[in-house]
Amino acid sequence: MLPSQADFPLTRFRRARQSPAIRALVRESTLSVDDFIWPVFVRSGAGIEEPVPSMPGVMRRSVDRVVEAAREAADLGIRAICIFPYTALEERTEDCAGAWDPENHANRAIRAIKAAVPEIAVMTDVALDTYNINGHDGFVEDGEIVNDRTVEALVRMTLAQAEAGADIIGPSDMMDGRIGAMRAALENAGHHNVMILSYAAKYASAFYGPFRDAVGASAALTGDKKTYQMDPGNSDEALRLIARDLREGADMVMIKPGLAYLDICRRVKESFGAPTFAYQVSGEYAMIQAAAQNGWIDGDRVMMESLMAFKRSGCDGILTYFAPAAARLLSKPA
Ligand code: PBG
């Protein structure tokens, strides 16, 4: 319950809005460079930085260039970077063996970043989609995405990433039982401090379109992901998933996509008080960039306003392609 307010003119709300100094003093939520995890796309080769057409300003980089980008991010004060591999159609297989290959370009990027920029936390993606010929996050048998055999593969993938030096494992696959299996395997292997940020409430969303271009999954994907990702009509289910993943050993939880699901962020933070992240996904980024490029909105201001919305909704942090741009703006005196 909010306390009652004195009537006008004892209360004048505009008093608290009269100047930048007063507005800053009474601001309830703040945005800082500490809030960001920056997702980056890594590909094979060397010296390569190729633009992703559906995500203006976003690049696919070869390992050497990802290391340079991590250095720049750390110099901007960004604390964490999240590695997503791009895999060409001809590199994909039905058994997805590339996913747990210690020498795949994601694992090489993890090792290279930890060697060159040890102060930045490295997060990973655990799911089979970028290695799978059909673009699904799990193995497909007779047209069905099978759960338990997929979890075994995800555990192998997790261990390879932890071995490569990952700080935070990011399961984005939405299989059941994977958090418990991953946590047990990490503990067994002595990786007690490797954290799990579970994509616990991940919706089957059309906002992922540009990402699937970025990782090469659009061409591959057959059908949709509705048998494992959540129905956008559901909210209680998100709480049950978060409770389950925390019980299985998730250290942090994520809601994805972001802006269209801020109600979920709020409920999750209030219900569990666990470290809560939102993913401002590719489609959200692309919409803002497209409108800004057309001169229809002020891109910088909409970027900052959208990021602030996550903090106001209760999130502790945000995975966002805007991380470097927002960090640059935040470092300028207001
Ligand atoms: C797949 C994965 C997806 C994203 C992150 N991991 C796409 C999907 O589920 O199809 C989306 C990220 C974004 O849109 O920015 N494991």
Topology:
Elements: H1 20-26, E1 36-43, E2 49-51, E3 59-62, H2 63-75, E4 80-85, H3 105-116, E5 121-123, E6 140-141, E7 144-145, H4 148-164, E8 168-169, H5 178-188, E9 195-202, H6 209-214, H7 236-247, E10 252-256, H8 262-272, E11 276-280, H9 282-293, H10 299-312, E12 317-320, H11 323-331
Helix pairs in contact: 2-3, 4-5, 7-8, 9-10
Bound molecules: ligand PBG.
The site of ligand PBG has 11 residues, from helix 6.
Q: What can you tell me about this protein's structure?
A:
α5 (178-188) links the parallel β8 (168-169) and β9 (195-202). The chain has one domain (30-331): Alpha-Beta Barrel (TIM Barrel). The chain contains eleven helices and twelve strands. α9 (282-293) packs antiparallel against α10 (299-312). 37% of the residues lie in helices and 16% in strands. The chain has helices spanning 20-26, 63-75, 105-116, 148-164, 178-188, 209-214, 236-247, 262-272, 282-293, 299-312, 323-331; strands spanning 36-43, 49-51, 59-62, 80-85, 121-123, 140-141, 144-145, 168-169, 195-202, 252-256, 276-280, 317-320. The mean pLDDT is 96. The chain is globular, with a radius of gyration of 20 Å. The two termini are 34 Å apart. The strands form two sheets. Strands 1, 2, 3, 4, 5, 8, 9, 10, 11 and 12 form a ten-stranded mixed sheet that branches. The chain is α/β, with parallel strands linked by helices and 334 residues long. It binds ligand PBG.
